[in-house]
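Troubleshooting log. The previous run stalled partway through. Resubmitting the same two chains, unchanged.
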Amino acid sequence: MLGNIIVGQSGGPTAVINSSLAGVFKTAKDSGCPVIYGMRNGIEGLLRERVVDLSEKIKSGLDIELLKRTPSSFLGTCRYKMPDYTKDEEPYKKVFSILKKMDIKYFLYIGGNDSMDTIDKLSKYSDATNSDVRFIGIPKTIDNDLAMTDHTPGYGSAAKYIAATVKEIICDARIYELESVNIVEIMGRDAGWLTCASALSRSEDCDGPDLICLPETVFDYNSFMNKIHEIRKEKTAITIAVSEGIKTADGKYVCEENGRSMSEDVFGHKMLGGTALYLSDFIGRELGIKSRGIVFSTLQRCASHLVSRCDITEAYIAGAAGVHLAINGETGKMVTFDRVCDNPYQIKTGCCPASAVANIEKKVPLDWLTNDNYYVSEKFFDYARPLIIGELTPFMVDGLPRHLFIG
Amino acid sequence: MLGNIIVGQSGGPTAVINSSLAGVFKTAKDSGCPVIYGMRNGIEGLLRERVVDLSEKIKSGLDIELLKRTPSSFLGTCRYKMPDYTKDEEPYKKVFSILKKMDIKYFLYIGGNDSMDTIDKLSKYSDATNSDVRFIGIPKTIDNDLAMTDHTPGYGSAAKYIAATVKEIICDARIYELESVNIVEIMGRDAGWLTCASALSRSEDCDGPDLICLPETVFDYNSFMNKIHEIRKEKTAITIAVSEGIKTADGKYVCEENGRSMSEDVFGHKMLGGTALYLSDFIGRELGIKSRGIVFSTLQRCASHLVSRCDITEAYIAGAAGVHLAINGETGKMVTFDRVCDNPYQIKTGCCPASAVANIEKKVPLDWLTNDNYYVSEKFFDYARPLIIGELTPFMVDGLPRHLFIG
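Second attempt completed without errors. Output:
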């Protein structure tokens, strides 16, 4: 007889995080888990016993399909960092007493590297206290910066949205005879995976962005302006994709130049923003031509109307694989994707210790960039192209995509 | 025997302006016009004889379908203002000599109120000089601010994009337990039609934006903050949609408050931008809560991956109707839409003098707003809902929408 299961979502939203939730729910149900609980707002909600019986929220096959088409975290999220249990055992005692009270044997957490830190700590406490609860992490992040896995669910859909939107922005820009520069600001604090995805717009009917600037390389104003001078000789409408987290040689974020104060989140990350606006003002001043900053902001992580079929299917599979791992007795692990082949694309699921993912950021390899660091090479295209393939038709009601709302 | 025809595109891009071009091309071809010319970059290109034979650019039925799915102006655009011909006849002589040389009898111009000014002036000069060239305008603008027509092609698709994206932003925002305010900045200098469209996101699964602020009403900081205080009692994640052109009682744009200098275009319009950023900083300072400005920028006018089927079909019909008007001997007119019925939605095409549209902006009627001016009433919903209905599947290649590129 299987035990009860609980699942939570943590960190920033993606367009497909709920597809992983659907995968957990359906697989746990089909496997015979008696009750499938959902934490409201992750571990932070669990600590206050804010828990729902998911069968009351996902009532039909149609609901499962709606859930897959719903962006952001159906259950709500949190950014809560578990303390070191040798220093502060209280939250651990609380979590385990709640799990015991609800007779929960499997704890699944869908999130990024901070969430894998939570899985790692909980599983280690579980071992230390001889608990039999299993803790499994399911990868999720648009940033694609998790170690040990070929890529992360959420990245493909954000990449598809970014590439499609950059393609449309280039269409929009190239119709004028006047010179112009568009700077597109894309999420990515330390890893430029999403900014690289803008290059996927390069195709038979589109030049793609003319330059990309990543946090993996040092941003240098002189070399940047020299590149723009070169491109101006060839074309009037220039499009540049930049990561929000690009920094100059002195380690300062470009977006800090604009003088706006930057607050920090609970993990001590500075809240970035303003890179595109600053650079477009800078270019406008330096060159006296029309320049515009375009910021994708939260649109790039919640555009469920344009998901990648590959991504949303894999997100579901990751959720299902997490349930299988837990049932098979694994703990402290994260589901991974191992690439079998680029072309035709094939992956298989695997797993790794959550500790190998926690608090680590996987960056774009520098040998996936062109020599001048201002573009991606064929290696990136081979890697990323399969991840944006295919669509999932939204369910349209009154002209708009319908979502499942927890209420 | 019919004469040759020329068509141009002017002003800002939309997601469906090329569907009107497709309607002109196909209808002119089917009607038997010998040559169908396209102006590159509107009247400005024509003055330099930058003209293409469209049959060489649109070669098949598949090309017509691709053209309909291509955002922005296939032919390029301009923002050129024709002078008063009694003061400067030169450009008129030039245009008419080029038209004569190419044996062109019908001149179609797809654009907004500035473009209708061009149609009006050219047709009046044509009358004054006894030319037999016919001049017809085809309405186009995401802003929906053209007089004499129920609505304009381009509005429905921008409205659908805005409503769908606001819905996704609300999903993204409501998952946190922390209080937050998102300010979404939407295009609209003097007319708030697009900002109103954000309210279409209100549905069974979504609250919609909590406030909307339009250029039609005076923006008042006190009443705005009072409204936010009221909403904070009910919910944690607040979403506000504002037009870029909102002004305070002294006639000053809110976006002028941030101190960035504002340049002007050739029609003397100030280039707006920064309203959301300014207001989100203001709210963050006043309330000490997380606030974010999200600017849709050019994304809202070129999102051909999410067009309204109603809109793209009507844009095509408007192009076709323009050809019929010209062939039937009309001149100095613009194609209009007259609404026959709201529910079920029916329209028919008509026409009006271009002079009745030129340089006039149709605003949102104040009695379509709620009493406090911070929301739209049922009248707006009845008007706008039909305009966003239906989809047109993009042609996807390598995971991205394929467009037709003039090269």
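Takeaways: The first helix of chain A runs from residue 17 to 31. The two ends of chain A are 32 Å apart (CA to CA).
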